[in-house]
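We modelled the chain as a single entity of 379 amino acids. Its sequence is:
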Amino acid sequence: MLLYIVWDPMKEIIKGIQPPVWYSVLFALGFIISYQLVTHFFKTEGKKVEHVDTLTVYMVLATIIGARFGHLAFYEPERFMADPLMFFRTWEGGLASHGGVFGILIAMILYRNYEVIASWSPFKFKFKKLKRKGQSYLWIFDRLVIAGAMAGAFIRFGNFVNSEIIGKPTDSEYGVVFARVAEEYLENSNLGIQSVEASKGDREERLQPGIVPVDLKITFEGKNTTEQSVRQKVESNVKDYLTRYPAIREHYAEPSGTPISYVITTEKRQLVANVQTYGISRHPSQLYEAATCILLFLILLGIWVKYKERTPEGLLLGIFMIWVFGLRWFHENFKENQVAFEDGMAFNMGQLLSIPLVLLGVFVLIRAFIVHRKSKAIT
């Protein structure tokens, strides 16, 4: 039995209405839940709840700016140097989690020590010195990382829905075929295709390990479309899409030297081509990371629930950094490299950028134990 799934996410919530950008929806949902969590932490520990709004603004801006700059600086430096304005073209994609972390580390220094004064009339923007009492740098981060672990899970779920940051082929009967890319190409072609739906094939044969059956249901537009024209489009154009387009070849393995296999049927007076092809079964690496983020969230939250304000400062931050970026080194072994130059590296960029953050986590964790031991000795 072939234990794989064909991932074909919902295109629309209400028929006829443009579907949402699922990554953006889940990204925003992660921050909304994080906001509620941090508000609860502040209220429970007797801090000023109104500070959470300011903290959230710093967090959101730092995450987006840091993640965008990090992606361009680490993964596309030559393009970024030649075209700095691409920083603002966020719709082209490209956010790096390591950059987001560096951005937050800097932003929390500003939040802890300064107040932003801004106005439009007259225009004014400046930083005013302000020490937020009872909120040390490490105290703030110890609360933020609890919410951050949950937000990280939502972001990786968003990557999965978007079929991005994909995993390597499993070379087995387990895994996920990310089918949406071929659907988008065919639906946006000029072949007169109304819709394309991918599903798991009911055949048991495989071309080779990790290459699994996938069926494409291609519905053609127009009641006047002839069966002969559909056959020509399937045998020539659809075959060409499945075998020649690199973006599709990442997920499909249609044999190039044999005729395409299909059957034509009629549904609601429209011609439908049921194509039998093959997909590449890949690791759902996004879900691996999401699962470890949820587990981390439960661990950090459990520690906070038990100790609250008695939690040694830096303990939760240290655990977070070691866990997330230590496991990131492991997770990268199941993910495709994001840019071509990584193919020639012994360790990819994600692994290399994780090293200083793991070391920082070790330092913070050791410091937390030392300071806690000293404080116990004094008392």
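As a brief sanity check on the tokenised model: The beta strands are 4-7, 114-120, 123-129, 175-178, 193-200, 211-220, 261-267, 270-280. The two ends are 64 Å apart (CA to CA).
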